[in-house]
Amino acid sequence: MMTVMTPNSGSRSESRRSAFLRHLRRFHAWVGLSGAAFGLLFGLTGFLQNHRAVMKIEAGQVEAHKVQLELDQPPATIEDLAGILATRFGVPMSRIRSRVLPPKSARFGGQDVKASAQWLIQVGGHAHFSRAIYLPGNRTVEVERSDANVVETLQRLHKAEAGQTGWILLTDCFAGALVFLALSGTLLWTRLAGPRLLSAILALGGLVTAILVASRAW
User: What's the pTM value of the predicted model, to 2 decimals?
Assistant: First the structure.
């Protein structure tokens, strides 16, 4: 049994297609506008990282200070130490990262000895961040506090090195927005601006160019 396409059904299909493309174009524009600030930040910092040597731009610098903090008593667990340092530095626990470093083998007096495990506590931040190493049982903890200049701070923002959940979430959203803009832009171009064959050639050409350039620096 053959299905007969009436003029009304064809017009409805065309109307739905036009409505879909119209909404997609609007959403494409809204997503692009909302991510414009992030695009500007990542674009400028990426440009600085690529050309700072040629343009003689001041490289990112970090000024480090080492101090020893006195503890009222040796903490029982690494979580207790993390809480103490969070209170001392006045930072939320969400910025604290901790892990136990396994014992390392060494030679002392001509004999193989194994050093005790160490506790590593890191306080994340873009411009100010710290790193503490603690030997269990001691009454002191060695803390290295680092202060980054403006260029280094921007680079850490670009690479999301601070480890803060909010910033990582925002960068993930920006990455997802870039994927959406690429796919929706390709769809809009093929539907509104040109033939599909030409769009496929352009997309494939860009992919091949990226692979060739990346392979030369592998």
Answer: 0.55
